[in-house]
Amino acid sequence: MSHLHAFLLCALLGLLGGGLYDLLYCLAYPFRSRVLTAVFEALFCVLFAGIYLLFSLGFGLPAFRLYHFAGCGAGFLLYLKSVHKTVAFLGKKVYNSCRKKLQKRRGRIVCRKKARVSPKRKQSALR
Question: Domains of the chain: which residue ranges?
Answer without folding.
Answer: 3-83
